[in-house]
Amino acid sequence: MSITDDQQKVTAAEITAILVRNCGLDPAGAAETPAASLAELGLDSLALLELQAVVADRYQVRIPPDSADLTIVEIAELVADEIAGEIAGEITGEITGEIAGEANSATGAGAAAGVGATTAGPPPGHTENSVVIAAPVDLVWAVTNDVDRWPDLFTEYASVQIVHRHGDTVRFRLTMHPDENGTVWSWVSERTADRDRRRVLAHRVETGPFEYMRIRWDYAEVPGGTRMTWVQDFAMRPTAPLDNAGMTERINTNSRIQLDIIRDRIETLARTADPAGGTR
User: Fold this and answer.
1) Per-residue DSSP letters for 56-92?
2) Residues paired with residue 199 on neighbouring β-strands, in sequence order
3) Domain CATH for 38
4) pLDDT in tens, 57-81
């Protein structure tokens, strides 16, 4: 890893901007109480996970999971110190690389012989949910892939900001409505649509509480309309408040709710477009 000059310049203002945009921080409250910790500012464990993910993407360093008692200034200093440590580590790594390589080779040989074998972790999360929509596949495709209008299609999204478009790929920021604790969640995702195959592949760029999140949408013509299927594969971070099984249950529940809402809205649109009530 190579640390750039820009990555070395970490300020409290930058950390504040990340917290406001991604974690629901109240900027006025933060300005009034600069000595308050993240916990005192009302940021919970999920907010800290989101901060960890964005800082890791932007600065390539890790914020410890027990940082909720730090102030924003202390977080900025911590990130700057971590970057300095990475630079020192790169220099040390050049000197000790061969030794480390030999040690890794020996460890690998031991593992191959069954020495130091570890138990497999929990299985990754996987969900698959479908709905049949009484509407033509072209209409279903057009409506569900109009990312700019997702706040009108989904009930959970408050806004969408397009970050970048290139061909059939779009990168965008999703912002949700406040949750039960009043926190506003926001993250960046990227999706690529393949109309010929009637398939969309997507992933979260800012992963938050996930180690990774990969998404696939499939569309198929069936008797009576179009079947739309959502598949999600993911793994939770060890520090996340939900494990893979818990998040699987949550995603399954929410996906079924949103799929039903989307079905109803598209079917209403299809009836409006076709007064006879058919699926052209």
Assistant:
1) HHHHS----TT-TTSBHHHHHHHHHHHHHHHHHHHHH
2) 194, 218
3) 1.10.1200
4) 777 777 887 788 899 999 888 888 8
